Each structure stands twice: as C-alpha cells, then as structure tokens.
Write a sequence for this structure.
C-alpha cells in the first residue's frame, strides 16, 4: 500500500508543479489554490508512504516521479523542447528510479 501512496504523491507533485507554472508567480487565484492543495496532498501521502518505506527510497522515487512527470507535461502541454540530451537525462532518471525500487527491501 505504501507504494500506491508514493505514486499518488508523485502524481500530485506533477500537478502542483504544473499549476505553479500556471499561477504566474502566485498571481492567479485558481492555479494558486490548486497548487497549495495538491502540495499538501502530495506531502501528506509521501509522509504516509514513509511510515514503511526507507527515507532515501521514498524521497528519491517521489522527486523522480515529479521531475520526469513535469518534464513530460512541459513537452506535451507547454510545448517545451524535447531534444535528445533532455530525453537522455529523463531516461537516466527513470533508470535510477527503477534501480531504487529494485534495491528496496520494502
């Protein structure tokens, strides 16, 4: 169950990163509210996952899901660059996440 909480926390991290961008420096109310609510939800779910998962594993996976997810949202929704170097960097992050999961005892 901890892994489900952790993945959900990572997805909420993607949402808050995107809505933070849309808030234009917290000057737009609706995206600002969504950012704050999803941040709280993301941190809450991460804390629940950390009850049983090791700190290093949980935090690495959470930030990795957020980083790669925000990267993909940037490309697919915001039209950001998808050059080979950025794609290779994201692939390295994903490979690190897979290795972290495989090495976890929880």
């Amino acid at each position: 169950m901890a892994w489900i909480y952790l993945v959900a926390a990572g997805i909420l991290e993607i949402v808050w990163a995107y809505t933070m961008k849309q808030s234009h420096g917290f000057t737009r109310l609706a995206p600002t509210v969504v950012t704050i609510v999803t941040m709280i939800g993301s941190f809450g779910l991460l804390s629940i996952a950390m009850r049983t998962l090791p700190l290093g594993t949980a935090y690495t996976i959470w930030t990795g899901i957020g980083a790669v997810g925000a990267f993909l949202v940037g490309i697919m929704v915001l039209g950001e660059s998808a050059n080979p170097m950025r794609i290779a960097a994201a692939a390295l992050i994903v490979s690190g996440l897979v290795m972290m999961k495989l090495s976890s005892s929880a």
User: Anything to note?
Assistant: The chain is about 80% helix and 0% strand. Residues 23 and 31 are 5 Å apart (CA to CA). The two ends are 11 Å apart (CA to CA).
